[in-house]
Amino acid sequence: MKPALLYESPFTDITPQEPEGLFRSAEMDGLIQVLEAVRAAAVAG
Would you tell me how many other CB atoms lie within 10 Å of the CB of residue 3? Predict the structure, then answer.
């Protein structure tokens, strides 16, 4: 999943602050790092 999808539905449906309304800044950073790592591993595999 591309991190940009965090700024679309269903995240935007839950809170008007988008994912920042659901996750703390450090959590968002970690989530994006995990998503990018999974994506990189999928592309490499």
Answer: 15
